[in-house]
Write a structure and sequence with these properties.
Layout lengths: L1 H30 L4 H30 L2 H27 L1 H8 L2 H11 L5 H7 L8 H5 L25 H47 L3
Helix pairs in contact: 1-2, 1-8, 2-3, 2-4, 2-8, 3-8, 4-8
């Protein structure tokens, strides 16, 4: 009974972490025009969270039924999920820079739009305090002067206010920082699942012992 209580008490936090990962993945997928690697990254976070929710639901069922066969099956499934999740997170962590670079490709479309419709880059330039795709020179080579958003406090009266950092670099740094946070959350989620596997093993052993005592 104690193991069952511990199993149920740990589930709300796992559910919250899973929903956060799913929400992040969906946000990335629907908010930006991603390339193939960017889409795979977004779906990876959705998959991590969805697998965790499935584990939680099966865990509730196993704890409720208190059946050895059901609990053993759950433990095996949980171990497979943990291995798969760890492999995905390992790739996300080791390829962090590549992932960030591909997610930042969404800025390329905005830059192309800026060339045709001035002002499209304003959001990024205000957000990251940057200028142009790679530098203010991007405007000059396209026979345009850097806009106000390329100057600190939008003050074009002083040349030294011109921001020389390009938005592409800043956007990549933003994604690298953001994915690092969610990779840590994913690792915390896997840690809870490892704890869940230990609790499930103890629950299975408890159910087996109760069944043996019932024969006497």
């Amino acid at each position: 009974m104690l193991q069952r209580l511990n199993l149920n008490n740990s589930n709300p936090l796992k559910q919250l972490l899973a929903l956060v990962l799913i929400s992040f993945g969906i946000y990335v997928a629907v908010s930006y025009n991603l390339n193939e690697i960017g889409e795979l990254t977004a779906y990876a976070y959705v998959g991590l969270g969805a697998a965790a929710l499935l584990v939680v639901l099966w865990g509730y069922l196993s704890a409720w039924r208190e059946n050895v066969c059901c609990t053993v099956t759950f433990i095996i499934f949980l171990c497979l999920v943990i291995i798969a999740q760890f492999a995905v997170v390992y790739l996300l962590v080791t390829q962090e820079k590549t992932v960030a670079s591909n997610l930042a490709n969404a800025l390329e479309d905005t830059w192309e739009e800026e060339l045709n419709s001035p002002g499209a880059m304003s959001l990024y330039q205000n957000w990251f305090q940057c200028c142009g795709r790679g530098s203010p020179q991007d405007y000059i080579v396209n026979e345009r002067l850097p806009p106000e958003t390329c100057f600190r406090n939008h003050d074009k009266s002083k040349p030294e206010n011109l921001i020389h950092t390009g938005c592409r670099v800043e956007f990549e740094n933003y994604w690298q920082h953001l994915t690092k946070i969610f990779n840590i959350l994913a690792l915390v989620l896997i840690g809870f699942e490892l704890l869940l596997s230990v609790i499930s093993c103890r629950l299975c052993n408890s159910i087996r012992n109760d069944a043996r005592r019932s024969y006497f």
